[in-house]
Amino acid sequence: MSFLHPQYEKMQQRWKDARDAADGEYEVHAAREEHLPRLNMEDDPAYNLRLKMTPWFGATWRTIIALRGMIFRRPPEVKVTDVLRAYLTNIDNAGTSFVSFSQKVTLDDLTVGRVGVLVDHTPVAEGATVADAGIVGARPYMCMYATETILNWGYSSVGGRRQLSFVRLLEDPAKYPEVELKEAEELHKVLKLEEKQYVQYLYQVSTASGKETVVDTWPRYPKRNTQPIHFIPFQPIGVDSLECKPEIPPLMDLITMNYHHYEQSSSYERGCFLSGLPTLFIYGDAGGGEDGKGNTVYLGGSKANVYPNPQTKAEFVEVQSSFEALLKNIEKKEFQMGVLGARMLEPRNAGVESGEAWKRKQAGDESVLVDMSTTLSEGMTNPLRWMAWWLGQEDDEETKVEFNKEFMPPNADSALLTSWMTMYIQGGMSWKTLFYNLDRAGMYPPGTKEEDEKGRIEEGTPGMGTLPTGGSSNGGDNTGTVSGQPDSGNGESSGQDGSGNSGSD
């Protein structure tokens, strides 16, 4: 029995391709024939040599980091009430700030096109109120689930409204040290609505012999102020939807082109290797080692070669082949990858516009990246509201997250920025030059140094300048706007969770 949704199974290979491309040369090489097909009659030594000398062009990762940097060019505007503000510096109960957590969500969304955020609560005694939970330090927190861990899902109509009714998540065994998993076993967490009540099940699933069977189960009924919860606090976030249904990774065209470039680079490097080493041929009895007599023929140096046969001839033979066409094709693909990456910034609909519509398109207001930023804003707002609700706040409409949608510098339009992005992705512009251009165009806050920005990117965090920290109150209400500097830590908070039988959308 399969625990995977049919749409999950269709997307697995795309996710694998996207992950490998983003992770870079090591993972691409480790996949071997999956990304670099073996030539006809090519044995292991020959294939291993060709694999070793084939470079990986890192256009995918460059693009992902650049696009995430665009979204976090400015920190997200986070409006929260006092009840939730203290939790923003530790949103996952593991020390990760909300801004840093959002960066990780965005990175996964850009890479594979789907991510999930679960709001969970540390265990409390039966009958405990919100106040009781606060006394013992129990609290709600966010968990991020990679798309590969969202195994199955289903929706149902509740009161005429379409609502998530179950999710099966592949869970991280490290979170449950009391569970002893045997070989070929997995932990699945299933979130369900049973009689309109939210319940969690933890399954120990055996996959031995190609079968999956439930070994054991532990039910849990999360409550709030002793009352059952009537919804599943799990938020899927896609590129332009908030559904569990997986979307094609937003950079899939670029990723596919990246692999085509990889294969052609292999052909080019192999050709250069074979043609770049001329072979010595000796015709006639040279008295050398090739005649079986044990003599040595020296090439150059201070040794003289005396051939017994005056008719002996020697010459170097090399392949006289041109690789110009192949090289041009490779360079063309590098340019195409730059264009495909920058397309995320371009308006969806081309055409001649005027007035305000033209200005909006030039600002990138109708681009794929803007749609994604809008989806992220709503997708991260809901978990924050659920946390506030779990902390005792009713009907929270004040909590809201807004991610940056202004990607164009004040002194540059979309066409110019697209051209810079294209050149950088394809390797035709150095980071130093890109920074210089973006800085002059007003992309960075005053005083931002190139070395600092490069360091942030190398750490795996989007830079885009030094961002302000702290919050401010608006008037005399309890709502503040919090903007935080991106964290520089490299720790991940994503759990390996998963769920349910064959479901449907």
Explain the layout of strands and helices.
Elements: H1 6-23, H2 25-30, H3 44-52, H4 59-71, E1 77-80, H5 82-85, H6 98-112, E2 114-121, H7 130-135, E3 140-146, E4 150-158, E5 161-171, E6 185-194, E7 197-206, E8 213-220, E9 223-224, E10 227-228, E11 234-238, H8 252-275, E12 279-283, E13 313-317, H9 324-342, H10 355-362, H11 368-390, E14 400-402, H12 414-425, H13 431-440, H14 450-458, E15 471-473, E16 480-482, E17 494-495, E18 498-499
Would you mind describing this structure in some detail?
The protein has 505 residues and is an alpha+beta fold. The chain has one domain. The protein is 35% helix and 20% strand. It contains 14 helices and 18 strands. Strands 4, 5, 6, 7, 8 and 18 form a six-stranded antiparallel beta sheet that branches. A four-stranded antiparallel beta sheet has the order 14-1-16-15. Strands 11-2-3-17 form a four-stranded mixed beta sheet.
Main features:
alpha+beta; 6-stranded antiparallel β-sheet; elongated; 18 strands; single chain; 505 residues; 4-stranded antiparallel β-sheet; 14 helices
